[in-house]
Design goal:
Blueprint (H helix, E strand, L loop, with lengths): L1 E2 L2 H13 L4 E5 L27 H6 L1 H18 L6 H11 L3 E6 L5 H4 L7 E3 L2 E8 L5 E2 L1 H11 L11 E5 L8 H13 L2 E5 L10 H8 L3 E6 L11 E4 L2 H5 L5
Parallel strand pairs: 1-10, 2-3, 2-8, 3-4, 8-9, 9-10
Antiparallel strand pairs: 5-6, 5-7
The structure holds nicotinamide-adenine-dinucleotide.
């Protein structure tokens, strides 16, 4: 069933959420657009301005590493002040009330945690862009410290162990994080309600989770302003603005 009217959509969603014993949200870039962070594929996307730097190039070439850090800080300046929106706040309430068990996210903006969702309830499939890690020993680095040194030296940061430091996100060509993928799979197979929110559902393997949940008996809800390739499998499609549909759940 595809619904675009806000009141009707909210009314159809409410009983599905009320009866959920183990809800899982799966979020994409669309949940953060009202916070001022543009999504990936909509027209004019700043993320597609430059061809992405493949992980193998980052490893191979110091100039690529410098370019990756330059781009990272430009993007950070654009969205540094983004705050959680209505979608994030609604999911925070649903987690706090026990209706939702976990949020599987493709996002790297850390806005679910910023809305108050505990770290252990957020499964990050593509990492987190709010800090960095050494690719060798895994040590965590804060961005402010790295930026200060980068702006002084112009050189990409290296860890005390000698390996490269990289934003804690998953780049094109980099393997998916094993633990997050496993946890996402467990949540997907255990849930009775799976809500895909703000994703074009075209990035695999992440986009495989909604269908897996449906095949295992969960109700599938898709909230997105555009059509997605999985709409035909959903029990309910809310076709419109995420914040508008989820606002009642913020209270
Ligand atoms: P996507 O850009 O492919 O799809 C986003 C979808 O959300 C689009 O279909 C768009 O129409 C819809 N949308 C945008 N704003 C909306 C709104 N307010 N209400 C309803 N629908 C809305 O994003 P994706 O599927 O998440 O895949 C993109 C990849 O890029 C992800 O892997 C992610 O890691 C990365 N990314 C992350 C961020 C972030 O962390 N905020 C931002 C851009 C890209």
């Amino acid at each position: 069933m595809i619904i675009a009217a806000i009141d009707e959509g909210r009314a159809k969603l409410q009983p599905l959420i009320d009866s959920a014993r183990h809800g899982v949200a799966f979020t994409g870039a669309g949940i953060s657009t009202e916070c001022g962070v543009p999504d990936f594929r909509s027209p004019g996307s700043p993320w597609l301005k430059n061809p992405p730097i493949e992980f193998s190039d980052f490893l191979r070439d110091p100039l690529m590493r410098e370019e990756a850090w330059r781009r990272k800080f430009v993007m950070d300046d654009l969205y540094a002040h983004a705050k959680p929106g209505r979608g994030h706040r609604a999911l925070q309430r649903l987690i706090a009330s026990g209706r939702m068990n976990a949020i599987i996210t493709q996002n790297i903006d850390g806005l679910h945690q910023a809305s108050g969702v505990p770290d252990e309830r957020v499964v990050e499939l593509h990492g987190n862009g709010t800090y960095a890690r050494c690719l060798g020993c895994g040590r965590r680095y804060e961005l402010a410290e790295i930026r200060r040194d980068f702006e002084m030296t112009g050189a990409a940061p290296e860890c005390t162990c000698g390996d490269h430091i990289k934003s804690a996100t998953i780049s094109f060509g980099q393997s998916m994080p094993e633990m997050a993928m496993q946890r996402a799979e467990e949540e997907t197979l255990a849930c009775d309600l799976f809500m895909a929110i703000g994703s074009s559902l075209v990035v695999y393997p992440a986009a495989g989770f909604p269908l897996a949940a449906k095949r295992h008996g969960a109700s599938l809800v898709i909230v997105n302003r555009e059509q997605t390739p999985l709409d035909e499998f959903a029990d309910l499609v809310l076709r419109g603005d995420i914040g508008d549909f989820l606002e009642p759940f913020c209270a």
